Amino acid sequence: MEIEEIVEMDEKHFMNVYSGRYPLYVEKAEGIKIYSKDGKVYRDFLAGIGVNALGYSSQRFKAALKDQIDKIIHCSNLYYIEPQSELEKKLCQNSCYDRVFFANSGSEANEGALKLARKYFKKKGTNKFETITADKSFHGRTMSTVTATGQDKYKKPFTPLPEGFYTVPFNDLEALKKAVTDKTAAIMLEPIQGEGGIYPAEKEYLEGVRQLCDQKDILLIFDEVQCGMGRTGELFAYQNYGVEADIITLAKALGGGVPIGAFMAREEVASAFEPGDHGTTFGGNPLATRAASEVMDIMLEAGFLESVKEKGIYLRAELDKLVAENDNLLETRGIGLMLALEFDQSLSAKKMTNQLFERGFLVNGVKEHTLRLLPPLVVEKEDIDLLIKNIKEIIAEK
Ligand SMILES: *Cc1c(COP(=O)(O)O)cnc(C)c1O
Question: Of 253, 272, 299, which residue constitutes the final position of a domain?
Fold first, then answer.
């Protein structure tokens, strides 16, 4: 197809939910660069929204996928699937959890976690079904997860919403305590809020939430769909805090670009699910689990996570320098390679994103005055230097 036809078909036939796509006509990618059909090249500091953790050129990852395609892509969960068992083993042996369920997306992983929490208390014979989440959170697009999401714009168009969901300010333990009732089944939080603008939880807050959940018999769910899988320089974000949730959800980077989601729990919680309680057609299929299994092998190799930490510190320091030099820049936030640069009212994140796009960089204006960076975890210092140089020039132009 010619570029004109691609655009025409999209405008004519695709549901109108991604209006204003950037004029990048994705053709192929290499390293951390995406090539457009119009000949332009972009350094990707968004990584498919935190998905392409290995960038685009891991030969090892590609070889594993090709090998798996030749063997089998999909079969049902009626049979034993070796890559699935491999992935189960790797996830459980490297976390505090005993059991996992494989879904296809972050929303689905959260949906499953919420179902597990409800089933857990139903099985106990209690009438606990409510879920408390945080303002500015994002948990997905299905009816329950959009309801759990603490941002009105995502859910207003879809009322009436499922019942039993409440939101409170993030990092505010007192507000959470007040919202708990004898019907509260779960508290679901992102250890680092992503779509809300990159807001890390405070350590004392998560410790307090853990304590509250223990005292009141509430299940704590960590949505690590964006902040998990190496993004923070730890395999899981909770490992930065030393606080363990009862259920954790994963997706985005888990499959390195192949769609897969997961939720995990300890035996005591997981055992609430009985045969028939939950299931999926695609979830955990041979291709997706083989992909995730290879992603985990690569991330667990000596030095990989260490290098994420180092590059995160480097990028953060470079951004901090910009903040120190410019009155229009207020602060940086985040952990590892999940970072935000906050502008004052005079700078638009959308405009900055457009200007960087023109210069060949993909970033995300996650809020009006907040720039979000989620580069591939294999980003190099030279790429970071180039990005910083270009942000500097754009600010100087203003
Ligand atoms: C992206 C995201 C989701 C939703 O994932 P999908 O794969 O788009 O359904 C849920 N929670 C968090 C924290 C996310 O960042």
Answer: 299
Say whether both 190 and 271 belong to one domain: yes
Same domain? 29 vs 165 = no
Rounded to the nearest 10 degrees, the angle between the axes of helix 304-325 and helix 381-397 is 20
223 marked ligand binding residue = yes
Same domain, residue pair 239 and 353: no
Q: Is there a single domain that holds both residue 312 and residue 356?
A: yes
What DSSP designation does 162 have? P
The 8-class DSSP code of residue 279 comes to -
Asked whether the beta carbons of 54 and 61 are under 8 A apart, the reply is yes
51 three-class SS: coil
Q: State the pLDDT at residue 350.
A: 97
Query: From the CB of residue 369, how many other CB atoms can be counted at a distance below 10 Å?
Result: 20
Integer Cα distance of 9 and 121 in angstroms: 48
CA-closest residue to ligand 1 atom 10: 139
User: Who's near 93: CB < 8 A, 6+ residues apart?
Assistant: none
Domain end: 253, 278, 299, which one? 299
CATH code (residue 345)? 3.90.1150.10
* Cα 264 to ligand 1 centroid, rounded to whole Å: 16
Q: How many angstroms does the Cα of residue 88 sit away from the middle of ligand 1?
A: 21
Q: Name 171's Cβ contacts closer than 8 Å, sequence gap at least 6.
A: 199, 201, 202, 205
**With 90 as the cut, is the pLDDT of residue 281 above it?**
yes
Q: Which of 17, 136, 139, 147 to mutate to test the pocket of ligand 1 (most atoms within 8 A of CB)?
A: 139
CB-based contact 395:326 (threshold 8 Å): yes
Domain that holds residue 192: 72-299
For residue 251 the two structure tokens come to: 């997706």
Q: Is the pLDDT of residue 46 over 80?
A: yes
Mean model confidence pLDDT for the chain? 98
Please indicate, yes or no, whether residues 183 and 228 belong to a single structural domain of this protein.
yes
**262 and 279 inside one domain:** yes
Sign of CA dihedral 357, 380, 397, 199: positive
> Considering the entire predicted model, what is its pTM?
0.98
Q: Identify which of 226, 247, 248 to mutate to test ligand 1's pocket (most ligand atoms within 8 A of the CB).
A: 226
Q: How far apart are CA 314 and CA 46, in angstroms?
A: 17
